[in-house]
Write a structure and sequence with these properties.
Chain lengths: 116, 111
């Protein structure tokens, strides 16, 4: 238990569906992240939110739409996905402070997404 | 961020020390070395980090060479639960921590 929860843990959706992934952190952190892990590929950073503001969009297609309503919650809204978007989607959080090196990211268990 | 090179896989006997190497020959002076691991179908877990000096915590030890071009993660008494993919990452200080994961080393602990 890392203090970062993700729901649902598993999701199967069609290409025309709209769904959302939810992440919640109970650590009081100020930064949250979405990562994607496809089969046999390294984790890829998708989005970064710092103090609820998006600070990084790693060339992610617009069919993925993040939302960070407050520093504890992060959503990933999905629409018109493709089968190649099937992957493990991981959320993480960290407490960022200027000049501080010993910042670790705490990851949630992930949502296993299958797009049919 | 500096690129890292790790062996794709390693085996270790249960109860023995597991030594995982990482090369980061282009590391710059303000980059730290971080180690994470990912047990199958779970999110990555932070293990340890360091800059110049060797570091030890309850999970592992990190040995960084004097020229900082390579490091070794040591799990002193490996257990079956240590079977995972281990990632070595180098990262500058400051800003949101954009961790760049490589392929890592798949460590298998054998009974």
């Amino acid at each position: 238990e890392t203090g970062v929860t993700q729901t649902p843990r598993h999701l199967v959706m069609g290409m025309t569906n709209k769904k959302s992934l939810k992440c919640e952190q109970h650590l009081g952190h100020n930064a949250m992240y979405w990562y994607k892990q496809s089969a046999k590929k390294p984790l890829e950073l998708m989005f970064v939110y710092n103090f609820k503001e998006q600070t990084e969009n790693n060339s992610v297609p617009s069919r993925f739409s993040p939302e960070c309503p407050n520093s504890s919650h992060l959503f990933l809204h999905l629409h018109t996905l493709q089968p190649e978007d099937s992957a493990l989607y991981l959320c993480a959080s960290s407490q960022e402070r200027a000049g501080g090196p010993w910042v670790t990211q705490y990851f949630g268990p992930g949502t296993r997404l299958t797009v049919l | 961020d500096a690129k890292t090179t790790q062996p794709p896989s390693m085996d270790c006997a249960e109860g023995r020390a597991a030594n995982l190497p990482c090369n980061h020959s282009t590391i710059s002076g303000n980059e730290y070395v971080y180690w994470y691991r990912q047990i199958h179908s779970q999110g990555p877990q932070y293990i340890i980090h360091g800059l110049k000096n060797n570091e030890t915590n309850e999970m592992a030890s990190l040995i960084i060479t004097e020229d900082r071009k390579s490091s070794t993660l040591i799990l002193p008494h490996a257990t079956l639960r240590d079977t995972a993919v281990y990632y070595c990452i180098v990262r500058v200080v400051g800003g949101a921590q954009k961790l760049v994961f490589g392929q890592g080393t798949r460590l298998t602990i054998n009974p």
